[in-house]
Amino acid sequence: MNTAEELFHLQTAQAEICQCDLKTLATQAVFGHGSANADIVFIGEAPGAKEDKEGKPFIGSAGKILTELLESIKLSREQVYITNIVKYRPPNNRDPLLKEKADCSAWLSAELSYIQPKLIVFLGRHSLNHFFPEMKISDVHGQLFTADLPHIPTRHFLPLYHPASSIYNRSLRAVLVEDFKKIPALLKKIARTL
Ligand code: URA
To answer: Which residues contact 1 (CB under 8 A, 6 or more apart)?
Structure first.
């Protein structure tokens, strides 16, 4: 088995054991997508309607923005890994509940342990606050920080606004573009510490 097949296998196994209540409401699980050897993992919140229908993360309007932001720093979706805290669509795109996030967390940890990224990028407050409940996205976006977390194989984290936030608040698009621009240099900096 190659790494992509192994990661697919791992996710299929996680989907079987995942006890999240959303499982019975969603069309299907939305697996993480991208390179199994990625240096960067982007973690969003939960699948939306399009993701639920097609089984791929970030392929709706927020996904289009994410793809453009990646391209702006010369990265393709295939070079990074994109996933969500919650693997099943919450009804009517409501915020995922604490229990739903907790029930999907073993799956996320398994993906991260397999990929061993150098950097984890949180897309939005749900993703950030799942790991760091005390942080405010408006205070910390675009700022690399280090921390040791149980079951998480990197110490390097970068919180960013969720791409969808720039649909409702146009001024956040420029902030996202500037924050994304920092990623290549941050990766180089992290590589020097490894
Ligand atoms: N928003 C998310 O957080 N994840 C997706 O997959 C799509 C939209």
So the answer is: 9
Q: Which residues contact 32 (CB under 8 A, 6 or more apart)?
A: 7, 11, 41, 57, 81, 82, 83, 84, 111
Give the number of the atom of ligand 1 that is nearest the alpha carbon of residue 50: 7
Q: What is the pLDDT of residue 150?
A: 87
Q: pTM of the prediction?
A: 0.97
Residues with CB under 6 Å of ligand 1 are 44-48, 51, 57-58, 60, 62-63, 84, 164
Q: How many domains does the chain have?
A: 1
CB atoms within 10 A of CB 90: 21
Query: The domain spanning residue 106 has which CATH number?
Result: 3.40.470.10
